[in-house]
Specification:
mainly alpha; elongated; Arc Repressor Mutant, subunit A; Tetracycline Repressor, domain 2
């Protein structure tokens, strides 16, 4: 007899995991990281404490999962090289989708609010969320440089510049303005302008 869980049991486990992560995010934001216990999360998620502890034996592990889930993208493969504008446009729109996901702004607020007491939350957010995504953009720029379609001496700086132009409009005002909600056309325009600036600065000159 196979010891592998059935499709049904895997589906149930995934549903419970999603409920736990959603409940924990809400409680962390409402009550703070320190005041939220795993028992409270289990109650809010509608699962037993045994079920929660089986998946997340510590609160830090649960927060790590929240970060990883929030930054996960379906398309992790970089665009093909050869067309810097097209590739950056695809990355830019994917970044907008990521930053405007429900709960992303809340996740940043949790980290910022709790950082003085729990610096490990900031480290987790950086190491398991922002850094892997940033590295994917840097690798794409490395590939364009290697292909001769971009002239880049510092791809880390270039990736910072590109993502910063987008997040400075899409995400960071949400940290101070609860009603900040630019429409899709405005965000698409920001991406287009960021791509044009990157292409003007780093695009290879063909002769």
């Amino acid at each position: 007899m196979s010891t592998e869980p059935s499709h049904y049991h895997r589906h149930v486990a995934e549903q419970k995991r999603a409920a736990i992560i959603e409940a924990a995010t809400r409680l962390f934001l409402d009550s703070g990281y320190a005041s939220t216990s795993l028992a409270k999360v289990a109650e809010a998620a509608g699962v037993s404490k045994a079920t929660l502890f089986k998946q997340f034996p510590a609160k830090a592990a649960l927060f790590d999962a929240i970060v990883s889930e929030s930054w996960k993208v379906d398309d992790v493969v970089s665009p093909p090289t050869g067309d810097l504008r097209r590739g950056l446009t695809a990355i830019g729109h994917r970044y907008v989708e990521l930053l405007t996901r429900p709960g992303m702004a809340a996740l940043f607020r949790i980290v910022i609010a709790e950082l003085p007491r729990f610096p490990e939350l900031g480290e987790a957010h950086f190491e398991r969320g922002k850094l892997p995504y940033f590295d994917s953009v840097r690798r794409y720029l490395d590939a364009e440089h290697a292909a001769g379609t971009a002239e880049l001496e510092d791809t880390e700086l270039a990736a910072t510049q590109f993502l910063g132009m987008i997040s400075n409009y899409v995400l960071w005002p949400r940290m101070l303005l609860l009603d900040w909600s630019p429409d899709e056309a405005s965000m698409a325009h920001v991406v287009d302008e960021a791509v044009l600036m990157m292409a003007a600065r780093y695009g290879a000159i063909t002769r």
